[in-house]
Every structure is written in C-alpha cells, then in structure tokens.
From TrEMBL, chain A:
This is Phenylacetate-CoA oxygenase subunit PaaI. It comes from the Bacteria. GO terms for cellular component: cytosol. It holds the Pfam family PaaA_PaaC. One of its GO terms (biological process) is phenylacetate catabolic process.
From TrEMBL, chain B:
It comes from Jiangella rhizosphaerae. The lineage of its organism: Bacteria, Bacillati, Actinomycetota, Actinomycetes, Jiangellales. One of its GO terms (cellular component) is cytosol. SUPFAM superfamilies: Ferritin-like. This is 1,2-phenylacetyl-CoA epoxidase subunit A. GO terms for biological process: phenylacetate catabolic process. One of its GO terms (molecular function) is phenylacetyl-CoA 1,2-epoxidase activity.
Amino acid sequence: MRDRYALALGDDALILAQRLGEWVARAPELEEDVALANIALDLLGQARSLLTYAGELEGAGRDEDALAYWRDDRDFRNVLLVELPGGDFAVTMARQLVFAAYQYELYDRLRASTDDTLAAVAGKAVKEVHYHRDHATQWVLRLGDGTDESHRRMAAGLETVWPYVDELFEPFDGADVDPAALREPWQAYVGAVLAEAGLEPPATGQHRTGGRRGLHTEHLGYLLAEMQHLHRSHPGATW
Amino acid sequence: MAGTEEREAAFYAIIDADGRIEPRDDMPEAYRRTLVRQIAQHAHSEIIGMQPEGNWISRAPSLRRKAILLAKVQDEAGHGLYLYAAAETLGVSRDQLLELLHARKQKYSSIFNYPTLTWADVGAIGWLVDGAAITNQVPLTRCSYGPYARAMVRICKEESFHQRQGFEALLTLTRGTPAQKAMAQDALDRWWYPSLAMFGPPDTGEQASGGHTEQSMRWGIKRFTNDELRQRFVDMTVPQSQVLGLTIPDPDLRWNEERGHYDFTPPDYDELFRVIKGDGPCNAQRLAHRVAAHEDGAWVREAAAAYAAKKQEVAA
C-alpha cells in the first residue's frame, strides 16, 4: 500500500519537474530561468527520494530509473494536473500556485508520518515547497493585478487548471495523509491569494480525474516518449 | 577637476601597478567600450549557451544526470545575471544589451552555433567547451576591471565543477557499452576543432585579430594571447583524452620535446569567421529561440513593472 503512495507522490514531483524543465532558456526573464530551474530541481530531488523508496518497499529490485524510465503511461500514478502542457506563463503559474499550495499542506502533515522515510522526505521538501508556493503567489499577484492583458491571461490560466483541482483531494487508499483534509487549508490559502490579485476562483462544473488509477490525458504519452526514449534505447547501460 | 591628461595618467598608474579600476574611477572611453563589448559578449554566451545543453534536459538518460544538467544550465543563467550586472556598472542596462544581441549587433561565442546531436555532446561541452572557457577565463580573474574580475572568480569555480562533471559523464560512456563509447568518440570528433576555435583567430599571419589583443593586454584586460591560451588548452586536454580512451581527431597531434608542448593542427579559421558572421549550423535557430522567448515574455515583464509601479504609488 505504502509503496503505491510513495510512487504516486514521486510521480507527481517527477512529471511536474519535467514540465518545468521545458521553461529553461525560454522564461520571460533571466531570473525566471533560474527560479523555474531551481523549482524543477527541488521537485526532481523529491521524486528521486520517493521513487527510490517506492522501489525499496516494492522489493522487486526497481530503482528510481527503472521506475521513471521503464513504466508506460498506464502505470504512472501522478495527478493529471502536473502532466498538462505548460501553456503560457500564466497557465504555468496557475498550476504552480494550485500544486505548491497543495504540496505544502501535504508535506507539512506528512512530516508527522509514522514512516520515518516519508517523514524525512517531507521534512526537507516542505521548506522547498514553501518557497515554490511563495514564488507562485508573487507571480499570481503581479499578473492578476498587473496589466489588462496579464489579468485576462491569469484568469484564463486558472480556467485551464481548475477542472484538475478536485483530483488532488480525492481519497487515496493507504495514504499517510488524508487528501480530503488538505482541501480546507488549501482553499484558505489560494482563496486569499486570488482575492488579493483581484481574481475569482473559476466556477467550473468540470472535474477531470483518473491519474491515480493510470488513466491519463493524451499529453502524458508524449512527455514520457521524450523523457524515456534515450534510456530505453540502451537497455542495461549505465549513465 | 583634473585635466584629461592627468586623469589618463592616474588610470595608467593603476594599470601599471596591477591595481583594479572600479566603476567610479576615470577610464578612457575606448577602455570602457572594449569592456562593455567583452562583458556583454560573455553574458550573451552564457544565456545562448543554455540552449544547446537545455536541449537535453527533457531527455537526460538518468534522473541523476537530469538533475546535474538542470543545475548546470541554471548556473549558466546565474552567470548571465552576474555578467549583465558587471556590465551595468559601466552604464549599460541588461535591456540595452539584450536589444543589441537580438539585433545581431553584439555577438556570443561561436561554439554555441553547433548542434547537440547526442547525449555525449552534453559531456563533450562540459569537458571541452567549459575546459576552453576556463582556460580563457582564469586569467580574467586578474582583469584590470574590478567588477568583471570578481564576477569571474565565482564563475570560474562553477565552470571548473562543470568541466569535471562533463569529463565524468564522458568517462561513464567510454567505460560503457560499445554504442556509448562510439557516441563519446563521435562527440569528440565534432567538438574538438570548434573548441580550439573558441580562443579566437591566431596571433599572427593573414587571419590574425587586428590589434585587439595588443590593446587589451596594455589595459590589463587580457593577460595571454589567443595562441598561448589555445596551446595551454591542448596541453591540458590531451592527457585527459588518454584517460578517457578517446582519440583526438588530429593525425598530426604529437608531443614536441623541444617546445615542451603538443604540436597540433589549428582549427579552420575560415569556418570560424563564417560562423561568427552568422553562417553556422545553428545561428538562426539560437537567435530566433532567444528573440521568441523575449517577445513571448514581454507581457509578463510589463505586468511585473505595472504591478511594481502600483505598489510604489500606494506606498508613496
């Protein structure tokens, strides 16, 4: 059970790191190339710890690379939110705010897990994610309350990601932290940021889900094809 | 107010004493212009250089290598930031310099106009390109202009770390499968001469760089000539290639006992000049990518500026 939990959290971090890496050398300003690479690196570090641990718990001899490179999309357990294409900078920041605020509440509680490894990963990650959340907050405020164009784009970014919010809080068998318990503090934080930015939470009636069961969007297959092709082209090689 | 001659004498007194010129010191306009051009070109090279390596972030063959590469490309963005800041001390803004880059009025290192075709190219860039950069840049830590010299101290430390990582990545390939070893050799075959060309035109002969070196040496900006640095790089790199078990693609490469240096075939300088003028494999692609990133981000920068202005108004 716990191996599936570690795998799901690890997949979330891995796939979002992959998406954020796409911004490197194309960010709106040099400071953002640095910041987005930094956030991607933090997430990649979390993913490596979590996948390594998932492999140990599974006991079938799979290490972080076996799990990252040799599973097909139906075996990935990340939420759909993290696999969506990066879109423009507003879509990316909308996702960052939603996801970092969720991850912050999650890791903050996971620190108290009876599982020492998960507690240790969470203890380190919560500090990183605190920065990720702050970074996204600052941008959502700037874009929401910047120019007419940035406001319009930020609102559209929220519309894009909002159907994928509910999945974050769905029940997960064997979770150390009940996802449903994260909803209220998440709502309080994100709601306050949006209010200050002069933005409304989108009134979407749509709820996309399935990632935790391996039912993904079409986007994930392409992401994995790119991420995995070199590793898979040389089976058994060491890099 | 001191006269022009006195001010020039004070400047050369600092230079001759191997002191540092600081932003508030008087300096000849030509010195300032040379430094702006050189620091800008260096800063542009850092940010354009993010592209060929960034090309492999999504495909890095292990999560560990992906993390190393992400960190490296992030460092390059950081180097760009310090260097633009160093240029700002000479009275030019980052925006102005980027405009000149985008309008093809300032250059960046020609090496980044070559494509990264395989994973081994990432290792080869670390080993050869960063190795050549360090050879060029270590003397710049003693450059007469203080802010540039200090930026170079930090940059050289990080570059030297990158160079070791690149070497280690290639070593892993050369000790790997036959396909991996072939990939490493192919990368060396393609990157060797462009790396030698990173030191610029030769000091003598028809293709020599017309007088820049001499003037820059007088000003304490440059400490060694292009050919001296090129030789130093070859002497350092040949033994490393032997550890890797790779063959440098130069049949005339051999140790010269008398000179105490390796003899080697110089790069094709005509090719170097063509690439500098814009006719390299990736010039158009690199610049188009940079301009697109800048243009796509314009609305974000405008929003940040508008937001900052609103906050300032409220505070006032």
